[in-house]
Structure formats: structure tokens, C-alpha cells
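#struct-pred

JT: dropping the chains for the assembly here, can someone run the whole complex?
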Amino acid sequence: MNLWKRAFLYSVRKKGKTATLLAFLLIMATLILTCLSIQSATKTATANMKKALLGYFTINARRLDMGITEETLDQILDMEGLSGKYTLRSYSYANYYDSDGTSLEINTEDAAQIPEGYEHAGRLIANSNSGEDSYFTEGGLELAEGNAITSENGNEVLVHEKFAKRNGLFLGDTILLGDPAKKNRTIPVTIVGIFTNTKEQDSIGMAPSYDLYDNIVFTNLSTASYLLYGAEDKTNVQYGDFYVNDPDELDRIIDETKKIPGVEWENCTLTRYDKDYQNAKESLEGLQNIVFIAIAVVSVICFLVLSLFLALRIRRRIHETGVYLAMGISKCAVLLQYLAEVFFAAVIALFLAYGTSSAISDQIGNRLLSQVTTETYETIDLTQDTKAAEQPTKDLGLSEVIVHVPTQNYLTVWCSDLVLCLASTALAAYPIMKMKPKSILSQMS
Amino acid sequence: MNLGIRAALYTMRKWKKTLLLFCLLLSVTTLVLSGLAIADAQEEQAEEVRQTTGASFTVQRDLSSGGWSSGSGGSYSTQEFMTGDMIQKIAAVDGISGYDASLITLPRIFKENGKELEHENYSFYNYGSYNSQYHKLFLSGRFELIEGSHITDDMADGIIISKELADQNSLKIGDTLTGIYYPENNTPAVDMKIVGIFDVVADKDDQLNMYTDSSYYDYSSFVFCSMEAAEGLIKGWGEDGDGISEAYYYVTDAAQLDSVIKEVRNIPSINWNNYTITANDEVYQNISSSLTDTETLITTLIIVITVVSMVLMILILSMSIRSRKREIGILLAVGIAKPAVLLQYMLETLLIAMVAFPLACLSSQQVAGTLGTLFGKTAENVIVTPQHFELVVIAGGILLVVAILLSCIPVFRFKPKAILAQME
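RK: done, full complex below.
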């Protein structure tokens, strides 16, 4: 009889044994595949954590004649490893005029001094998103009317409530901003928002007039760019904060940034800010190590158990082996038959394992994990009279944690499982094959 | 023959089978024990991550409920300042890992020889501090202590200065400096010892600030001194107008922030009408969902491992029993009662388990450690505790007994004759 036929017949005849073997292999393969899919999901989760710790670097190009140009900005944003989140900022001073060109009044009462030439001027702040400027997030400024400035281009301005009142300005009014140094540059802007301060400015009596909260305005980056650089259709900026995916790569990214041609990097200051990440780094690594060790332990022991199981199986068949050999079937053919049986079972088990582990992974993914893409970050609801820190809903751009069986892992498990099955069967059969049929059979009785 | 002897004899006679079963039991138990240890370790590690997020709350004067008055420098609030006593009381609440508050003074500082220190500004911007390591400038990474130690609340006269200032005036740790708020008004002179030197990491040239009074000082003119020393500088002079208006408290576990704040609000001796509490756990909020995901994933992994291990045990045992069908038939035929046969098998398995379980305890510790070092990862906190062992022994023992019982049932349903006939 052909050995393939024999293997097939044995598998069919001994249904119970075949089922046990199949179940065993299936469980093992499912376990390993599930472990691997969990591991890859944890990797995403850890990467998300790294990203959420918001490591960034700041380019200070204030001393450059033209600041950071649009071309340079594009090149920076094209670099690998940036999370896509960035903030551009420019700061200047501006003279304020109404639409007729008459100077507007500023608060001079609380000022330590009124610098010459700045009698009708204040600090001009341009930010990619005025609501995210530190004046609003930390300094206690709050929008009372209108909207924040969120676009780079446009001629919009936010003014202080007191400034608006003093000069009889309302939402929708147009004022002129002029550069105090180069008096020929003026630009008309529309008031789109009015802000107020919730905290007292503690530098009252120390600050020059233009720094007082009453006298500052927020505007678009393009407006600041025109006043600072005279650039009409291009937006150059003084500062940029660029967030990265993995704070570990900050050094590399900063080095690469410095290689961008056409910029006098020696006149720029690049500063890295990743304290939150540095604080959490060690514990995060610890967490990753634990996952890794868990997977390693599972894989090693699974393989161990599998080979022991197969050895146990072969040892049960000493009698059968003796009979085969006595019948004159070559050792090689007997071994091949055993291997073929395991092989059949393993192939079926591995196919089924893909389905079972995918099903388990899906369950984990759908039921247990928070879906970061749809989740908003809200502050914990504290007791009623406790002010919760104001945190706007943020989109950190985190990737969704998906638990699925990666194809590459599947192939690895396929190959390693098959090799292992065949190797352990062969190894277990080796001592039996060494013996003469007679000694095998006599040992049995 | 006694069934105990029979069990022992079988185990010894079939030593190869025993060895195989032993190895299987050992591996499976090791797997479960390692899993349990890993589950504990990840919980600990996740807590550690939460600790590093610097979740805090700020207690500050409630300016809206206090009165206002005006003076030479504009209007100011007359709301009561925070007292040292109150700050300490809050700091004593369980779950708070550290705290700091600032008493700001603008002293001029002199060397031991009476010469004024050279620096960028007219006076220094001095933060009187309880624990300077918890000061915002250090926590945010803008300043970094490079030498000596931070100011702590048990220090009476410590001061930390910038590296630039130290270099410019050739100062070193241990030197004594004298601070005077207004030398022309004969305010008290306070001697302070340099305990630490910090480096400025942040870019002061970045105009990102809100033009608070500190922004008019160069970072190199910032100093931090003990709270007691700062109070000494204004003693009998500016105490009315200067005080501590806010204090920062850092909690051990960000997930507990809520309950810690509640506890703080219950301190009876503080008049909460005059103070507000603001929670700040932005970093934790940002990572919390990812952290929970990781925790869930690891826990699931451990559950999967445990369940699979249990199934494997049952499979292995039923296989080993089923292969002894013939033996069961013979034993029954010679008149040994079914319960006795069952008991013998259980005894055999338990004999093996008795050796395998304690060994698994050792091996699981080894496996995690060895695998860790093999790949250069440390896992000191993966520890198998006696509780884990207890759990595995009890659950494992029950599982083994049940597994044998279950696999014996199909065989026991038949008469010995039928069993033996079936074998032929």
C-alpha cells in the first residue's frame, strides 16, 4: 500500500486521535496568531502614546531677514516623522488707525513707559490658530464675541474689549495696522472677534504700553508677514512649532531640518521640547518590554508543548511501528507516513487558525478597545464648584488600534509550525526507528 | 495491591511516559504562572506611566469672591493669600506626591564680600519655593538642574541659581549669598547657601509668553530660594502686598486625581469660598485611551493564555487516559472497583503535578528573566508571588481531577469484557 494512502486511512480510521491532534494544532496556532496580532496592536497603542505625549521642536527664525519662507516650511513638513500637527507664529508691533487713517487710542495709564513712536501701537500676535496661543491657553484671555482666527490668510483681527470700547469699535469694523518702523506699510483688517482677560496682568506697572493686554491684537499670519517682511502674496513666519510622531526621533529630525538648504540655520535657534515624553519614557519602555516578554514566553512554551505532544503521540505507536517494520515496510516509508499524517492535520489546522484567530482578534478590537479615532478627550467631571481645566476637544491624529492577524505573521507561523511539527515527529520517531522490529515487538509484550 | 502502590509503581515503571507528562504539565503551568506574573507587572507598569504624566491640581485665590483695592501700581485684589499652614495641610492628603508654591520677590543679591552680583537685570526674579523640582519651569523642561540639589521644604536657606550667573560671578555650590529686597529701605538681609545650579534649556528669545512680570527678566536672572528665606526677605516690610497666591500639587496616580481633589475640598479648616481648585491632567488625558488599550490587550492576552492552557491540560490528560483503555479493562476484569481505578489515575497525575507545580514556579521566573535578557529587555517587575502559586495549585489540581474524571467516563460506561473485546 502506498504510504500516502496509509497515512490517509490511519487518519480516517482513528478519528478520535486525528481530532485530538487537529484540536491541539489548531489551539496552538490560534494562540500564537492571536498573540502576534495583540502584539502588533500594542505597538500601535504605544506609538499612539508616544505621539500623544506631544514632543515637538521650535524653530526660532526671528533673526533671519525673511523668517521661515513658505518653501522652507514645505520642505520641513515633507520630512519623515512629523505628525502633521504644527503651529506657526509671528510677533510684531503695529500702529493702530481707524479706516480714515486717524490714530486709535491705547491704554497708557497702567504702562511703565510709553516708548517713543509707539504712542498708538501695540503688540501684534499671529498664530496658526489664535485660540491655541499661549495668551489664551495659559494667560487667561478669553473670546467674548466673534470667532478665533484659524486661517493663515486673510485680514482679520481680534481686539481687546477695552480697546474696542475706548475707540468705539464693533465686530465687522475695519481698522488699519501700520508698521511702526517702516511707516509706509499699512494693511486694512476686519475685527472678527473681541477678547477679554480673566486674569489680571501681573506686570502692570512694569510693562511698556504696547505689551498691556488692552493694547495687543491677534491677526492672521499673512498680515504679520506683510508688516514684518513686506511679503504680499507669501506668508513668512518667525517661529514654528513642529510636532513629531516619535519623540525619540527628535534629534534626527532636528539634524535633518538643519540640512535644508537656503536657510542660515546658524542664525536660528532650534529647541526641542519633549519633557513629558522623557518623564514617561522609561515606564513606557517597561510596558513594551512586558508585552514582548509575554509574547516570547507564549511562543517558546507553545512550541515546547507542541513538540512534547507530538513525541507523546509517536511513542504510543511503538507497537504499530514494529508491525510495519516486520511487514517489510522501510523505515523511511514509516517515518514519511507519520510525517504525512501530521502534515495533513497541520495544514487543516493552520487554515482554520486564521479564521479563529481573526474572529478572536475582531472581538478584542471591537469590544474591548476604545476607538481613538472617534473618541474626544474630555476633562473629568469634578465637583461642581471645581473649575475643570479648559481643554478644547483635541484631535491628536492618533491611529486606530486595530487587532488583526498580519499576513506576514501568518506566513511566519505557517512555516515555523510546519517545520516544528515535522521536526518533532521525526525526532520522536528516531529512537524507535533505530531499533530492530523484533526488539520493538518483544519490548511491547 | 494497594492503589497507592499501584500508582507509584506505574509512574516509575513507565518513566518515559511519566517524564513526558511531567514536561507537559511543567510547561503549561509555567505558561500560566508567567502569564499571571506578567499581568501584575503590566498593572504596576501602567500605574508608573500614569505617575509620570504629572497630573496636578492648582489651588489659587479666588479673585472673583474677594475685594479689590487700588494702589500705585494699579488695582489689586484684597483676597486673602494662602498660608503656609494651609499649603502643608493640603500636601499631607494621601495620594499627593509633591507640591510647590511660589512667593515672588525681586531682591538684589550680594556676594560674601558685599559686592553685588553681576547680571542682566537690575534685580533678580526670585521664586520662594517649597520643592523647586515641582516648579513649572523645571517640570516643563525649560530649566534643568545640572549640579547640586533642588530646594526642598526642609531647607531653610537654600538658593539655586543659573549656570550663566554662576559662571559670570564664579560662584559654586556651598557659597553663601545675601539677598536684600530694597537695600535703600533697609529691608532685612537674608543669607542663603547655593545648593544647586540649573541650566536654561528654553529659548528666551522665543516671544511666546504672556508678558507677565517674569518675562521682563532674563532667564539667567531667575533664582529659586527656600520659602523661609523668601519670607525673610519681606519680613516686616511687604507682607501685606506679597503672598502666595497659588500652589501646585502633583498626584501619585493620575487616575486618582478626581478623588484626591475631593478629599482636599473636605479639609474643614480651609475656607473654600476664597480659593479655587483647577485640575490639570492634560498629558494623562492625551495618553489615557492608548494606555487603557495597552492594558486591555495585555489582560486579554493573559486570559487567552490561561484558557488555552486549561484546554491543553484537559486534552493531554484525556489522551493519556484513552491510551490506557486496555489496562482499564484488565484492572476491572481482575475485580478492582471503578472508583479505585479512577483514584489510581488521579493519584498518578497528582504525583507528577506535585513535582511539576513547584518546579514551574522556579522555571516561570527563569523563563521571563532569561527571555528578557536574551533580547536585552529588563523585566524586574515580572515576579511570581505566592498568591499566583496558590491559585495555580488549587485551580490546576481541580482541573486535573476533573479532566481525568471526564476522560474516564466513556471507558467506564462499558463492561470489562466489552472494553477488552473492543481492543482486539
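JT: nice. Chain A has a mean pLDDT of 84. Chain A is about 45% helix and 15% strand.
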